[in-house]
Amino acid sequence: MSKMPVIIFGAFLTFLFSWMGLVAYPYFQLGRFTPFVAEDTGDISPPPLSGMAVMGQRVYASSGCIYCHSQQVRQVGYGSDLERGWGARPTVARDYMRQNPAFLGTMRTGPDLSNIGARQPSIDWHHQHLYQPAVVSPGSIMPSFRYLYRLQKIEGQRSANAIDLLPPDAPPDGYEVVPTYEAEALVAYLISLNRNYPLPEAPEPPQ
Amino acid sequence: MSATTVHSSTTTPAMDKAERARIDESTRVPVLLFFGSAVFWLLAGSLFALLASFKLNAPHLLDQWGWLTFGRVRPAHLNAVAYGWASSAGIGVALWLMARLCRSPLRHSKLLICAAIFWNIGVLVGIGGILSGDSRSIEWLEFPNYASLMLFVAFGLIAVWAVIMFRFRQPGHVYVSQWYLLAAFLWFPWLYSTANILLNFEPIQGGAQGAVNWWYGHNALGLWFTPIGLAAAYYFIPKVLGRPIHSYYLSILGFWSLALFYSWNGMHHLIGGPFPAWMISASVVASMMMFIPVITTAINHHMTVRGNFGALKWSPTLRFIVFGAMCYTLASLQGILMAIPSLNKITHFTHYTVGHAHLGLYAFFTMIMFGSMYYITPRVVGWEWPSARLIRWHFWLVAIGIGVMVVALTLGGLLQGIALLDPGITFMATLDYTKPWLLLRSGSGILLTVGHIIFAISFTLLLLKVGKRRAGPTLFGTDEVRQPESIIP
User: Fold this and answer.
1) What is the C-alpha to C-alpha distance for residues A125 and A136, in angstroms, rounded to an integer?
2) Which of A102, B90, B268, B364 could be joined to B209 by an S-S link, Cβ 3.0–4.6 Å?
3) Residue pairs spanning A and B at CB distance below 8 A
């Protein structure tokens, strides 16, 4: 081969081919979902995220949760995702229409979080777990996210949002640990992760 | 027809040698800028890697600081080595190869100097952005927009330069290395801009993001690093041995089959995921088809070296590059296996994939970059490497280091994957299977880092022209063996 146009044109065409298939196609077919509205109840699926949850999504991204946690429940025949109770059904493309970014993930050093809000609906549990993961889940190698919390002196009454911590992280007498706005947002996002709404294209598999 | 016909019959060996020296000298400033920054980012990336790895062994380590949390240090590592080290080294090698293969002194070096400055500021600001919490956690595209824009500008300058350079080439055959380089210079800006626009600047809906993300993630390896690595292997193996590439036709087949199939591989990162079955299937099939370019290239390289493996004893360049070329075959065959759904079921979401990534980007690409830099740097500086012993230490530390790392992550990942498949094993127990292997991985990381420090020392001593002037290239063993006269310009 001695002609530049042949090389450039060939390289252009082969790449254009995959660009059409893996970029243009998903852009039009998977990037323009509208939510499903149930005729009887008027429920919208997937439901919109609250403002706090949208903020929390950013904290999830900036903290790099995705490097250990996936958010996809695979179909039957691809691993034990359903048996592990990570979801009542496999996730489908429309489940991610309100997620930006869609944290599909590639690693499971920690469990899948597609439905963590259904498994652990307690705000207190999440705060404790983020602050002292190995105490709440023995054996966990998740790092503490205590930099998202503030240790402060109790002025008069203990703050309503102060979190209960177990030793060795419990604050000294007269002090309390309160979540920052970022921690509150992150927990709001985690609790919003609940794909137990109906989508016609994603029936629950028979038990 | 063999690739040897590039040699113009009207010149004498002495003229060729003088011409090559003139071309090498013309590449000095841009090539050294890219190599120097590559070495810096290699060290920075190694430190991030060690810290991330230690944090998995001891989660409490430095957990009081958000900017050093695992979820930020790990992408800082990836971006430092992918864009800081591997891309900079790759660009440096590509520039030098372009000038040599166009048989023309490097023109418009100001474009490249600007590009190097933009690239480095981009990487620096990008890593700062990740550590300070501006990452959107899109794998391989973690740099915030203000940083990726700078990389794109840098890349635009380089691509423009490549086109200009190619216009001024000496007429005649275009060597196989140049096909790969030209294609990579076309593919990467396209790839990088498309993915950044659709995922970071004007994000598309979440349901489509995964496809674009892995179209990018896989092609960054397959259509950016791989072509540069193969271009270098195709140049240096025949160059050092003084014999032509085994088969011109295999080179053509290898190139076009890579171009056609590699770009479709991305969706095999999402097997079982929320995508239409045909997209996943297309990628699985394309991954199987990768057998063609991989085996073609492996045969071509092997047949070129065959009968001359003794040269690995004395040539640092060849030792690193043959190691890298063999690992290209290994990593690619492993990648093909991992795309088979029944095997992917085990390896998906485990450290096995991390091992595979290191086999590709380190054992293949990085080793080839080391080998190329051992050849190029003395020629552009006009000073030989200070010590064969340092090179030998570098080689064995990183060769053993990466071997241990890949084995540890592969075994740990397999155990983790088999355990994850069995719902009777609690999740926490699946983690226990990985812990000893992650500790071993940290150990291997220390070996690699020490190797990198030795390389950086060696590189600095060469730049400073420390020691006595050597009569010939710094080779392993004795100085008696001469490098054969070369064939490719």
Assistant:
1) 8
2) A102
3) 248
pLDDT tens column, A129-156: 999 999 999 999 999 999 999 999 999 9
Check: CATH 3.20.20.70 for A36-192?
A: no
> How does A74-95 read in b/e, with b if 16+ C-beta sit within 10 Å?
bbeebbbbbebbbbebbbbbbb
* Amino acid B173: pLDDT: 84
Residues of chain B contacting A99 with CB distance shorter than 8 Å: 206
Q: Is the pLDDT of residue B281 over 60?
A: yes
CB contact under 8 A, A18 and B263: yes
Residue type (1 letter), B375: Y
- Tell me the pTM: 0.94
Give alpha helix (H) positions in B168-247. 176-196, 206-220, 226-241
ipTM of the modeled complex: 0.95
pLDDT at residue number A3: 76
pLDDT single digits (tens) B119-155? 999 999 999 999 999 999 999 999 999 999 999 999 9
B406-429 pLDDT, tens per residue?
999 999 999 999 999 999 999 999
- Mean confidence (pLDDT) of chain B: 93
Q: How many CB atoms lie within 10 A of CB B313?
A: 13
**Contact state of B66 with A147 under an 8 Å Cβ cutoff:** yes
Taking the alpha carbons at both ends of chain A, their separation in whole angstroms is: 60
CB contact under 8 A, A61 and B135: yes
B146 at interface of A, judged by CB pairs closer than 8 A: no
CB contact under 8 A, B341 and A97: no
**What is the total residue count of chain B?**
489
* B chain contacts of residue A4, beta-carbon cutoff 8 Å: 166, 174, 182
Q: In the structure encoding, which two tokens stand for residue A67, read together? A: 């490097």
* SS3 category, A175: strand
Domains plus CATH for chain B? Answer: 18-463 (1.20.210.10)
* Rounded Cα distance, A6 and A13, in Å: 10
Start-to-end CA distance of chain B, whole Å, equals: 17
What is the average pLDDT across A58-64?
97
